[in-house]
Specification:
Length: 203
């Protein structure tokens, strides 16, 4: 990954009094030395606040806290730090509340290896010990695996996709929850499952 994309954008946020962090697969693949395909960042700035200094960004999904910006011709997704509550349809949260801290944000994420944050100095902030699981090549749900899967059963397929893609093992407790709750995949839109299968083949 060209880290200049991140550091340049982080500098803009910093100058306006906000923080920007690298997160998700972007950090994970960067730390593993893999090619980065998607650029995912999080910030303590709300979409309305981002609009004051990046007015030309794409605010289509601003109500969900997600803004798409372009840096040197490369698109990056910037999401406001948030808490998600009341998952109503095995997929989407009924409530989203913007927050200011990583400690509040990380608990909504799927796996420890996808909850490693990096700041503008490329220093790691690792509230769920994802670095350790990265070193041990483990896929582990954050918190209670059954709760994470019930929030979004598609995480079952994501766990298996990451395990296959990275050559990792699914941690024992997480694997047991996957086996117990696999039937929940039947409740999902078949198109979502096909989309996840396409991702497995493309990466």
């Amino acid at each position: 990954m060209n880290k200049e994309i991140f550091t340049k954008l982080a500098s803009i946020f910093n100058k306006n009094g906000y923080r920007l962090y690298m997160i998700g697969g972007t950090t994970r693949d960067y730390l593993l030395g893999l090619e980065v395909f998607d650029f995912d960042f999080v910030t303590d700035a709300t979409p309305d606040e981002i609009k004051t200094f990046l007015p030309d960004a794409d605010f289509t999904f601003a109500k969900f806290g997600s803004v798409r910006v372009k840096v040197d011709g490369v698109k990056a997704d910037v999401t406001t730090l948030r808490v998600e509550e009341d998952y109503e349809d095995f997929r989407h949260p009924g409530k989203i509340r913007f927050v200011k801290t990583i400690e509040e944000d990380y608990v909504r994420r799927d796996f420890t290896i996808n909850a490693i944050y990096m700041d503008e100095d490329l220093s790691v902030i690792d509230p769920s010990n994802g670095l350790k699981d990265l070193e041990n090549k483990l896929i582990r749900f954050i918190g209670d695996p059954e709760k994470r899967i019930k929030e979004d059963p598609l995480r079952i397929l994501r766990a298996e996709r990451f395990a296959n893609k990275l050559g990792f093992k699914i941690e024992e407790k997480s694997q047991k929850a996957i086996e117990n709750l696999r039937y929940l995949l039947d409740k999902l839109n078949p198109e979502k499952i096909k989309e996840e299968e396409r991702k497995s083949k493309s990466h």
